[in-house]
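Lecture 7 notes: from sequence to structure.

We start with a single chain of 629 residues. Read the sequence below before looking at the structure.
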Amino acid sequence: MYQCNFCKRYFSRKQDLTQHCHQLHSYTDHSRTLNWVQDQQSSSNNNIRQKTIDNNVWNEIEGLDIFLQMTSGDDKQNNEKLDLNNAADVPIAFNEYTSFQNYDYTDYDISEYHEITQSQESKSISSKASSEDFCGVSLADAYKDLNNDSELTLWPSETYKEFMMAVTQYHLSDAASDSMLRILKKHCTDQLSGSTRKGRTFIYNMDVKGLQFKEKELLTFEEEIYKLHYRPIYDAIKSLVSNSDLSKDFLFNYEEQWEYGLDGSLVRVYSEQNTADWWRERYNPFSKILAFMIYIDGTTLDTLWRKSEYPIFLTLGNIPNLRLNLPDSKVLIGFLPHLTTRDNKLRNSKEFKQKQRDLKHRALKYLLGPLLKEDDLRNHENMQEAIASHNAENCSIHEYDNFFWNFRMMNIYDAAALDRMHLQEIGLFPYMLDYTRDMLMYQYGNRIISKMDNRLATITRFNNLRILKKGYQQGTKFTGGEMRDVMKIIVFVLDELYTTDNKINQNQTDSNLYTIASCKNLIICYIKFIKMYITSRKKKFNEDDLKIFEREIIDWSNDFVNIFAQFSPSGLQLPKLHMWIYHTIHTIRRYGSLNGLTTDTYETLHKNWVKNPYRMSNKKNTHNQMLKT
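Now the structure, written as tokens:
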């Protein structure tokens, strides 16, 4: 039997498989298909061969051995020339030593501020990337890693290994693990650890190649050293590329998809990232594109919302969307430091916020620096022109060094794509619920609000449907999954919720301030939102679909503004609403279906990599404990 490497269908003959690939997967290289068929045929024989990592990308490079001999000797010399802390930075128009104008600071406050501004010179914090982070990043090293057997870590016994894997996977406490360990020792003769704590120490001391987290001091402020805890980005990329379950489905070639539209003409289709415009602009038949995506979002560590962290995850745009939304397609590469102060006056100043951005850019420069071949700072043309012409304030540009301007092939203002979960599930939809409750409270009083919460709490149970037992409480943070479940039942909750007879007594002046929508119009607005949300979850869009989707966005936004603008303090001047209306269609054309940009999976990763390890720590020096858990 022969299995298609792309859609997993089985065929009894090699000719059938080849014909299938030509018809349905014509965008792939013919040589790649034939090589794979030959591998399948040879593997069906009785010959037993040593298992190696196979990556067809390397098979397509002609004369690779000669190239490796030419380049391997030059890697060390090239790395020594790489300097990511070039002194010739872009001139910054903002004067770091400008005194505070809005506050009457004491001498102590000013000295604290100068401690920030002079930290680059006096408290030393070079953002220069470590030379160790460049080791093993050449083509020769990558080829060697892919074809050599992985180094095995020796355990005292297989039982010892399985026991510690279970302890780590299920986050067992030392007390519970020691009890299990005593039972194992009574019935097992294999060598085991004296205690669970010793077993954890054994794991911590393992020298696993590519899995070491490092730390770099970035800033000293208020007697606290801010550090970047990170994993070298090349090691993180290698861990994804060397995962055979992921790499076998990688998308490297640009695939321009077409299908017949409503009028019978051919129209473009946007689905995976390799079908979008940005891939077409950068695609070269003589090279391969490796698209990496970085996700940063804050998450709370305790139930009191007092402690939070900002984990940084990395994934690859070459992974198909269905596979991309699984947890093992992302890797944790570090924690973004966040500058804090107890001084309320300093916290609200423009200069302090500027230094917060400085700390973040310093961390990102150190983390992403190895991706740059050189450090000749070049700003994006429009941003540089605005700063040079002193129009930065009019263009809402911070006159500050932006590290992402170093990437010549990327416009950071275009590459920062929107995320559906933060815009819809925990963005615009909660806004609708909040404004709905404000409208009902103003016109009908607390009785209708209680009726709405009672309906949410007493809705008929259904499989996998989460119920808000206390109703929808404004100010409470809900997950994206909980908001999706509310979408499923909100129409039934609002059905005949109120009528004009429920109106409470108000004076004539107040009644003329707002126009209250009828229950029917309110339900229609929610139905339009749900239809729009369902459309946004499509796996692919053609041009006709995009036109329909754009009309749905406009129809819903018109109703949303007409009904709720009067209840918004800003008149619905919401960044999320602006992004959804004006940038969604452009994002799909540029980067493919929104399913490839969603961050639903990261909530699970926050639990596995951040929340649970923090709760298991002793709350002191938490970063080192969290990264080793």
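Residues 26-125, 374-379 have pLDDT under 50 and may be disordered. Keep this in mind for problem set 3.
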